[in-house]
Amino acid sequence: MDWKKAEMFLSSGQAFIPVYAENKGDSVLMYWKDGSTEMLDIQCESFLAKLLYYFGTSVSANRN
Length: 64
What we know:
Blueprint: H1 3-12, E1 13-21, E2 25-32, E3 37-40, H2 44-54, H3 59-63
Antiparallel strand pairs: 1-2, 2-3
């Protein structure tokens, strides 16, 4: 995954949800502040891990 997408989401994203894309598998659908959407070919847990890494934490640390 391109790190720029995670940074762009942090600055102008609203929400993201896991979706199943035909012929691609698990993906992330990102909703932007301007109302547009974008599909990212990465599993939701991996995307969340990248976002948390940006803030210096991890998925397992946040579960606790």
